[in-house]
Amino acid sequence: MQKNWEATAARGAIPVDEPTKRMALITGVVGIENVCNADLIIDAVFETMAVKKEVFGKIDQYAKSGAVLASNTSYLDINEIANSTKRPHDVVGMHFFSPANVMEL
């Protein structure tokens, strides 16, 4: 991310000091239990229904009430993924194009 933002700054699309500011907003952690304070959780797992359902079932155990659980799927049935949780009303589909930072939509 930092390299992408630095390249964007070098092109003049964002201020030169912006990459450092943006990186300071990001905290990386390992372990699914660390989603407990997140307002928005987006999966980044293989595009297979069994994998998505397993991950969303685990996320459901740790995510706080009201958190939005988003799947980065391009074609899987969101309703089926949502039904692997106890809160299907909090599950949405989001799809990011690659590379998202340079896609002109």
Placed side by side, the strands forming the largest sheet appear as 1-2-3
Shape: globular
Number of helices: 4
Q: Main β-sheet: number of strands, strand sense, barrel status?
A: 3 strands, parallel
Tell me the count of domains.
2
Class from helix and strand fractions: alpha/beta
**Reported CATH architecture of the largest domain:** 3-Layer(aba) Sandwich
CATH topology value of the largest domain: Rossmann fold
Q: What is the H level of CATH, i.e. the homologous superfamily of the largest domain?
A: NAD(P)-binding Rossmann-like Domain
Order of SSEs: HHEHEHE
How far the N terminus sits from the C terminus, by CA atoms, comes to: 20 Å
What is the rounded Rg?
16 Å
Round the mean pLDDT to the nearest integer and report it: 92
**Share in helix:** 25-40%
Q: Output the CATH class name of the largest domain.
A: Alpha Beta
| Low-confidence runs of at least 5 consecutive residues | none
Proportion of strand residues: 5-15%
Q: How many runs of DSSP E, i.e. beta strands?
A: 3
